[in-house]
Every structure is written in C-alpha cells, then in structure tokens.
Design brief:
Radius of gyration: 25 Å
Strand content: 35-45%
Low-confidence stretches: none
Number of strands: 27
Distance between the termini: 75 Å
Mean pLDDT: 94
Largest sheet: 9 strands, antiparallel
Strand order of the largest sheet: 10-6-2-3-4-18-17-16-11
Helix content: 10-25%
C-alpha cells in the first residue's frame, strides 16, 4: 500500500485527531492513529474508547487498505519537516511503514489496522439537530468550569444537555455553583436530554471552528458531532442529572447592579487577604455602596474596599467564595452584572445586564456561612 500527501496538511488533520489519544491507554494500539484508505481518501481515526475523532482528507493512493501508525513518532517527524509532499509505503505483511521526504527516509513499525477498536457511528434512526458552532462553543465555554471533579457524583462530571424543539439548554454544577446557558434560535423536531463528559467537551471546544454549522446526533449510548471533514463521537455519562430547578431561588428581592470589571478587580485584590481554605469574601451591600472585605485570622491579614453600585432592597451582609465569583465574572461578557439576593444563607444569582440575542445565561453561587 502506498500513498502521497502534503506533510503540512496531514499534520493539521493529525493534530485534530490526536486530542482523543489518552495519556495512559489501556491497550497499546490506542497510542496509534488508524489510517484507512478508500478511493484516494484517507480517513484518520483516534480513540481512548470513550471519545473518538475521525477526520478525512484527499491523498494519492495506489491501493486501498488500513494500518495503525504510532502517533507520537509520526507527529514529531511531521512537526520537524518543512512543508513538502511525502510518501508512505506500507508493507502489508509486516505493517512496517516507510516515509519518504525530500530529505530522506524514515522507518517505523505499524500495527494491523484490523486490531484497532471499532469507532461508533451514528445510525439512521438517531435524533439529529443542527446548530451554529459559535452557540456550542459559547455554551461549552460558559458551563465547563462549573462541572464537578467528584467521581462519586458522576452526573456532575459532565454538562447536562436539554434539547427542547426550539432551544438547547446546557447546565453544569458542582453543588457550590451552577450555570445554565440556553440558546433559543434552534429549529428541531427533537426533545431529549443527555450528559456529555468534560473531556469530550474540551476536545470539541478546541477543534470546532467558529462560524460553521455543526450536526449533533445522539442515541442512548453516544453523541456525535459532525462538521467540515471531522466527526467526534463520545460516550454519554449514564447517570441521572440532579433536579437543578429546585436549587434556583425564585424570590430575590435584593438587586445589586455593578460594573463587572470593577467588581472582578476588587475581588482579585481582596481575595489575597482571604482565608486560603474557604476563600471567603464578605459583601456588605446597602444603598449605592458595596463594601468587599476579607480576613484571615490565622495570619492577621485583612482588607476592605468600597465600590459604588446600584442597589434595591434591604441592607445585606453575605459571604461568598471569591474564587467561584471570579470564575463567573470572567466568563460573563456584559459590562455590568446583576446579583439577585434574598438572605445571607440562600444562593445568589448572577446575571449579565446586557443580554445577547438568542442567548440566556444564569449563574448561581452558594454562600459561605459567615463566621462571626
């Protein structure tokens, strides 16, 4: 089997597929790319058994066939080569691979492509929706940070997707903070829900180009994302997502509106003086004024800053984890943010003042109990 291809084009496709190769694969062949050639088209696949990426490109080949190629040595070789046509010659008995470039020859040992695990494929009966890649990237960027790392709460280690005909809602929570992102410009015949794992979403975020359409298909076990010449498949988290509606407080009479950048800058400075275990900052809010303070009694450190704000409601003192608030303020994009508060023991809601058309985002953060 023999084929020729541009080294830089091949490298580009391999870097996309390489995202799904795990660091400690359970099978040695999972350290390889699967190369399959049919009708002068090269299909490159890589998987860690949970997530798989398949990408396609045109090549000049003399025959069809498959071979598993060691990923690291191939990537390192192509990164070190300037752009040029290269030729792969594969021995169909030993699976030895010879790469010929303008500089010379490189030999490496491949494996039988038939031994590579099967990559899941979408079926004709699967539910399918199409949405702009920008909406998916935004949703992932705004929710991923709120997922949990607690393996005892498997459902929370992913993002919950709820597809409901004209909208798609993405929810992430770790029981301390929660984000709900809704994209409303969807037209589909589908109503369903599933949980996508964090690794797959990180991959999608990194390889999905902006300004394109992405086709999402899903069944009971897997979700598939197709765009351009690439397809990502990932195994869904088989677990029940907690009822997030129940934790979102509805009656919040105290409304604080403040410039997002000023609030975030103040929190960054004050957090330096907070207790390193709780990261607790205290917000003391009254008409027109927000006082942000923190203290670490173990080291006699304390800091206080006063900010101007717009506030409707009774004076309130409430404690939050500064790290969580900062993560949320970094992800929000509006110039001003609104906090809806009720009491010092109930969750606070953080919203952008300026809404993006077709998008709706709500963030919730649990308070830290005041120590005094």
């Amino acid at each position: 089997m023999k084929f020729s291809v541009s080294s830089s084009e091949l490298l580009k496709q391999l870097q996309v597929a390489a995202g799904s190769i795990g660091s400690n694969p359970v099978l040695p062949i999972l350290e390889d790319f699967l190369f399959s050639i049919a009708d002068n088209k090269l299909t490159i696949s890589a998987t860690d058994l949970d997530t798989a990426i398949t990408t396609h490109m045109d090549v000049m080949a003399d025959t069809d066939g498959t071979v598993a190629v060691p990923a690291k040595i191939l990537l390192d070789t192509l990164k070190a080569l300037p752009q040029q046509p290269i030729t792969f010659t594969i021995d169909e008995n030993t699976f030895g691979i010879e790469i010929t470039s303008a500089y010379g020859k490189y030999r490496l040992s491949g494996e039988n492509g038939q031994d590579f695990p099967a990559i899941p494929e979408p079926e004709s009966g699967d539910d399918t929706i199409t949405l702009p890649s920008n909406a998916l990237i935004q949703g992932v960027n705004k929710t991923l940070f709120a997922t949990s790392n607690d393996e005892l709460r498997l459902a929370m280690m992913g993002v919950y997707f709820q597809v409901d005909f004209s909208k798609i809602t993405m929810v992430a929570t770790d029981a301390h903070k929660l984000v709900r992102y809704t994209f409303t410009d969807l037209s589909s015949e589908v109503s369903t829900s599933f949980i996508l794992p964090k690794k797959a979403l990180n991959l999608i975020k990194n390889v999905l180009p902006a300004g394109t359409e992405v086709k999402m298909s899903f069944n009971k076990a897997n979700a598939f994302f197709s765009f351009n010449d690439t397809q990502i498949s990932c195994r869904l988290i088989d677990s029940r997502y907690p009822d997030y509606h129940a934790v979102i407080p509805v009656d919040n009479p105290n409304l604080l509106t403040i410039a997002r950048a000023d609030f975030a800058s103040s929190l960054r400075r004050i957090a330096i003086y907070a207790n390193k275990t709780t990261n607790q900052v205290i917000l003391n809010v009254s008409q027109g004024t927000l006082i942000v303070s923190a203290q670490d009694l173990d080291f006699s450190n304390e800091a206080t800053e006063k900010l101007t704000c717009t506030y409707e409601g009774d004076p309130l003192m409430i404690g939050f984890n500064a790290k969580f608030l900062l993560e949320m303020l970094t992800v929000l994009e509006s110039d001003e943010v609104r906090m809806e508060l009720s009491t010092s023991t109930r969750a606070g809601i953080l919203l952008p003042v300026e809404e993006v058309p077709g998008e709706d985002i709500l963030m919730l953060v649990m308070p830290v109990m005041l120590s005094n």
